[in-house]
Amino acid sequence: MERISRNKIKYLRSLRQKKMREQEQCFLIEGEKMVLEILKEYPHIVKEVYVEKNTELNINFPLVFEISALESEQISGFKTPNKCLALISNPIIETKTQDLTLVLDQIQDPGNMGTIIRLADWFGLTKIIASKDTVDCFNPKVIQASMGSIFRVQINYCDINDYLSNTNLPIYGALLEGENVYKTALPQKAILIMGNEGNGLSGSVQKLITHKLTIPKFGKAESLNVSTATGILLSEFSRNR
Predict the structure, then answer these.
(1) Domains of the chain in sequence order
(2) What is the reported pTM?
(3) H/E segment holding residue 66
(4) What mean pLDDT is predicted for residues 40-58?
(5) Torsion angle of the four alpha carbons 208, 171, 117, 218, in this order, in degrees rounded to the nearest 10
(6) Using CA atoms, how far apart are residues 210 and 197, in angstroms rounded to an integer?
(7) Beta carbons of 50 and 84 less than 8 angstroms apart
(8) DSSP readout, 65-125?
(9) Which residues contact 221 (CB under 8 A, 6 or more apart)?
(10) Confidence bin at 222 (pLDDT 50/70/90)
(11) Phi, psi for residue 188 in degrees, rounded to 5
């Protein structure tokens, strides 16, 4: 295996920044399991692979570079670095027509974002609409939490107020004062909006909602995590599909 250069390490470190990921149209993935899965399923978007010295991995790819444990620490975006990483081109995802569209309003936590992408993949969605101030889907922690679903779900960032203003579909929003989702007849074709972890849906978005939904509470928990709530609502919308 060829040794990695200092300039390459500097370049890979720069991809921790959103502006560099956008400029270069590529990002890093970390972890043996994810790298091997991408090499198997989507080898055409893999640019280079980096493997820590003395790691017993059988990687069949032309551009594999050897890195030291220190170099792995320098490159990785995690406190506990992975021994295998790969440089990936932004995937072009073939989306399909879907009856339900999931819209995200100012989701900030990378873990929540990654889990929501994974949930969308589970329920057969190939596209998510997100506000421009939602966390970057190629953030390393988003990618890790998505467990590979980032390669099957396209995230479109846009002005969601404009998007919602130009649809004829019913718009459902998750709000505490909404109608009980378990007692609501949900249509197959609709838009579901999920809001910010701390503040919920923004005021301007709430004005565009045509149907307010809530998940009733039977216990004493103060609130639901947004990714958990998204999973419950996607499940309810999927009952009649």
Answers:
(1) 2-89 (3.30.1330.30), 100-237 (3.40.1280.10)
(2) 0.92
(3) strand 64-67
(4) 89
(5) 100
(6) 21
(7) yes
(8) EEE-HHHHHHH-SSSS--SEEEEEEPP-------SEEEEESS---HHHHHHHHHHHHHTT-
(9) none
(10) confident
(11) -75, -40
